[in-house]
Amino acid sequence: MRSYRFLYAGGDSLDGYLVLQRPLDGGDRVSIVDWEAASDSVSEELLTAAIDDGGFSVLSAWSLGASPAVARLLDRHGFSPAARSKSILVRSVRSADLEEPWTVAGRALDDASQWDLRMLYSMDG
């Protein structure tokens, strides 16, 4: 249902990768669905390659849960918030837990920076 492009950086070892997804129906929207890099400079190199060499009319990425460095990088490259927003709803099934801090293994469930959110993991990805 979708086609993918894989960009990578490195030589003998992998320094980073970026995965692009496009619907097979030929839609204009291309999405960054997964992205990892060993450094901020490698992140920039991968994103710049996708933008400059991809020839896409629309390129989207999720920033919720992204590191501050990635959020700044997306901003510098002209990405802007989408008109529609998505929400993540988290609720305990035990009413007694509603008055307590929402944590699992010391991580706050209501803090997006504690989550690994990638478009690849979603129904949209």
3D architecture notes:
The chain is α+β, with helices and mostly antiparallel strands and 125 residues long. The protein has a domain at 2-84: Aminopeptidase (3-Layer(aba) Sandwich). The protein has helices at 40-54, 68-76; strands at residues 2-10, 14-23, 29-37, 58-61, 103-104, 107-108. α1 packs parallel to α2 (68-76). The longest helix is centred in the middle third of the chain and has 15 residues, at 40-54. The termini are close together.
Topology diagram in text:
Layout: E1 2-10, E2 14-23, E3 29-37, H1 40-54, E4 58-61, H2 68-76, E5 103-104, E6 107-108
Parallel strand pairs: 3-4
Antiparallel strand pairs: 1-2, 2-3, 5-6
Helix pairs in contact: 1-2
Can you tag this structure with a few keywords?
alpha+beta; two-stranded antiparallel sheet; globular; 19% helix; Aminopeptidase; four-stranded mixed β-sheet; 125 residues
Short characterization:
By secondary structure, the chain is of the alpha+beta class. The chain is built from two helices and six strands. The protein is globular, with a radius of gyration of 17 Å.
Rough outline: globular
Low-confidence stretches: none
CATH architecture descriptor text of the domain at 2-84: 3-Layer(aba) Sandwich
**Helix/strand-derived class?**
alpha+beta
User: How are helices and strands ordered from N to C?
Assistant: EEEHEHEE
Q: Cα-atom Rg, whole angstroms? A: 17 Å
The amount of helix comes to 10-25%
The portion of residues forming beta strands comes to 25-35%
CATH superfamily of the domain at 2-84: Gcn5-related N-acetyltransferase (GNAT)
Number of E strands: 6
User: Spatial order of the strands in the main sheet?
Assistant: 1-2-3-4
Largest sheet: 4 strands, mixed
Average of pLDDT:
79
CATH topology of the domain at 2-84: Aminopeptidase
Distance between the termini: 11 Å
Count of runs of 4 or more consecutive helical residues: 2
